Amino acid sequence: MNTFAKLQTYMTGRKALLPGALLLSALSALASMSPYILIWFIIREFLTEGAAASGLIYTYALWAAGLAVAGILLYFLALSASHLAAFRVECNMRRVAMKKIVNMPLGFFDNNTSGRIRKIIDDNAGITHGFLAHQMPDLASTIVMPLSAAVLIFVFDWRLGLACLFPIFFSIIIMTSMMGKRGRYFMQKYMDSLEEMNTEAVEYVRGIPVVKVFQQTVHSFKNFYNSIIKYKEMVGVHTKMWQIPMSIYTVIINGFAFFLVPVTILLIGNSGDYATVILNMFLYILIVPVFSQSIMRSMYFNQAFGQAKEAIDRLDKLTSIAPLAKSDNPQKIINHDIRFIEVSFTYPGANKKAVDTVSFDIQPGQTVALVGASGGGKTTIARLVPRFWDVDEGEVCIGGINVKNIAHDDLMNHISFVFQNTRLFKTSLLENIKYGNHNASLEEVNRALDLAQCREIIDRLPDGLNTKIGTDGTYLSGGEQQRMALARAFLKNAPIVVLDEATAFADPENEHLIQQALKKLTEGKTVLMIAHRLTSVMNADNILIINEGKIAEQGTHYELVGKKRIYTRMWNEYQKSVKWTIGKEARHA
Ligand SMILES: Nc1ncnc2c1ncn2[C@@H]1O[C@H](COP(=O)(O)OP(=O)(O)O)[C@@H](O)[C@H]1O
Ligand SMILES: [Mg+2]
After folding, report:
1. Ligand 1, atom 18: closest residue by C-alpha
2. Average pLDDT for residues 487-512, to the nearest whole number?
3. The CATH number of the domain covering residues in 1-156+296-321
4. pLDDT value of residue 375
């Protein structure tokens, strides 16, 4: 679909606005051209009739003034229509994008942070506004004005017309050659290096704390500096490249009198009717600048059009991932066992399977642990259960039902998911915890807080449960936030619990409390857990070693230690690291 058609689809029900704006703007252009002709009539009357023609001159003048005013009014109306259209498109673009994003698979938000999503939607919807509100109505006059001017210059005197057209013709050739292939190439380069510079700037700012800690100022600045230099050189080269054609263009388009005057003199010499010829020449001097204006305007239009096209494409790209399919007749979850049947999954755009024909099951009330080197696919496996993404091959089933056939709400109600690093919302703690269950009573909230070992945190805060997180310097440490997230999970009390390195970012003290809370949270539940500390998986009913998307080994802790393969190696390493820590602490004591 081309850009205009795409823009029209966002117009919903007001498809006449934009063509209307174009028509009004074209009429306005005609109205503002007509005083030129009337002035020509006035001067002619004056030259031929003198004072006797004052009545007629007066009428012409009135018409000229009236048409000039009408031109302005029509333009105003055109702009009103185009602004209405532009706001409508902008608003609908945002609405459509948000609607699509709300229905995106949860995994989409891994690669697209809220800041990035907001920026892409806001910026790109905004860009189309300028194009539709201003450049579009100008397009009509950019076409109508030079066309009517071209007709005029031939109607009055075709020989003078030719003299004027010559430089215009030339400048259009120069302009199109500048805007052509080379121009587009430059534009692309320009945008690329601008983006690179912006990215490096963000990287630089983001890295400042690390840079300061490691005293690496010069090195870290290098990439940013290089991108600026690259940008500067690129712009420099292209500016020089355009220096000559642009100068020629400016001279020719403004120097049309250079051709006009000699032709006028020739014509006077030939015909002897100097009055008409000079009169025509004045008209031409008035009209010809219309062409240069139009050429400039068409350049701006071209640029704005390119940007609008790019903006729509970028938005389309953001929202191009298909939403999760909804089942036509969803089935209710009754049993809480989880089963993976030959599941494979590849991330969109990746060329390697993140999960490769994985099969395992978790009986109701059992715990299965995933361990293995980072990047192996543990998180991906865990996320396939609550349908962060849909599998490419195989099936993920809960209670024998494929998760694709379970209604989204039902699925979410049955699973508690605790991530590596939970973020709390910028609202009161009470609200934050009630995300687990909006209908919970205060009593239930308090019980969940106790179970999650959060009592001590609440007691310390000035407003207790009503303390707003993230304001007035009230921040919680990573481990404390994790305990709050657990309180949320307790409140939800879902029969299936998925834990992804829930203690990864906690300090030892928090970790101990979190472990205690986790023990209670997972009692009697069906649990899929990922852990990097092997002591926390020792009691699992089954341990899967995940490597390169596959199950490399599995069994209980004792079975696996007996096998003397990967797990045994991991276990020995782990033992060593624990001893090392204890030994170090003992020396310091
Ligand atoms: N959101 C994502 N988009 C694309 N690739 C991803 C994404 N998340 C993880 N991957 C890739 O999938 C593979 C498995 O990652 P992951 O499941 O996070 O492993 P683990 O949890 O075992 O460290 C890795 O190669 C990783 O780079
Ligand atoms: Mg992980």
Report:
1. 379
2. 85
3. 1.20.1560.10
4. 92
